[in-house]
Amino acid sequence: MTNQKIAELVHLARENKKKGNYQEAEIQLRTSLSIFEMIMKKDKEPQILVEYLTTKAEYYNLKAKVMLNPSDTPLKMRQNAIRSLECMEQARETIEREKLPNRENVEKNISNTLKNVIEVFGCVVPETENHYIFKCPIRNRNGFGISPSIVLKNPTCSICGKNPTNPEECSHIPGSEYDKEVCRILHKGIGLDHSALVRRPKDPRCFPIKIFMPKADMNKAFTEEELKIKERDKSPAFCHLCKKLKTVPDIDFRTFSKMQRLEEDDIKSSKSSKEMLISGYLLFADK
Ligand SMILES: [Zn+2]
Ligand SMILES: [Zn+2]
User: Fold this and answer.
1) Rounded distance from Cα 124 to ligand 2 centre (Å)
2) DSSP letter at 190?
3) Can you give the residue ranges of every domain in the chain?
4) Is the pLDDT of residue 1 over 80?
């Protein structure tokens, strides 16, 4: 640590945390952050910035885990967990940009904290006027996949160029050789007939990335009381499927924070319809 005073404070805070003296730990971390801020006014060393950000992450992480004030709600504690993650992500970006050591440590911390957040709080379901938008990849990957149905148009014989399905037009047999040339059926034109939601898609990468559920339908899952509280506290809806999965799969913070908020695209899509909408990956096999 760059500064003796800061190092002492952080050490004391950690000791106090272990002993359960959370109030003291909070004050010590907060004090060390203000010393950092004073130093950083003069010294713009990236290493100091990284140390500041990781200490700030530690501070918010404490506030995410322990109720320090009677006014702390689960929602506020969750916000602190997200702030902690944001600080770590900024630290990670600085380390990467400045080619500083210990990148792996920060990455591991991010991944552990994120798993913790998902296990405790689930994830936010962003909403517009018409829809709840499920973007949680853990949830969406766990339900249905998308299976495209493709129509091949205008079959043509590679030998004579006529319709091979009509024996009056073409007598060649696909796969057979004619004058050292193998007869094949060629299709001039491909059309997409429909996409189906299936339990097990042929290509497991074809999962929905966003599912827009009509609010009118989804709100039926809440009691009137719950809806009132939600409105009053301006609380978002939460997805609990990822929380229920005992092992949270690896997911990076950038993907996570993207799915936790509304994107411009979401607002546009939701405006155009009140129906259920699905936008999904249509990845085709490489071979
Ligand atoms: Zn033919
Ligand atoms: Zn989720």
Assistant:
1) 7
2) E
3) 2-121, 125-143+207-284, 146-198
4) no
Place of tokens 């609010």: 215
Residue 207 makes CB contacts below 8 A (sequence gap 6+) with 137, 140, 141, 144, 145, 146, 201, 280, 281
Name the residue with tokens 């010590």.
28
pTM: 0.72
Starting from the CA of residue 242, give the closest ligand. 2
- 3-state secondary structure at position 95: helix
The alpha carbon of 216 and the centre of ligand 2 are apart by a number of angstroms equal to: 21
Kindly identify the ligand whose nearest atom is closest to the C-alpha of 136.
2
Please write the tens of the pLDDT for every residue from 176-234: 999 999 999 998 888 888 878 788 777 777 778 888 999 999 999 899 999 999 899 88
User: How many angstroms does the Cα of residue 17 sit away from the middle of ligand 2?
Assistant: 30
| CA of 140 relative to ligand 2 center, distance in Å | 8
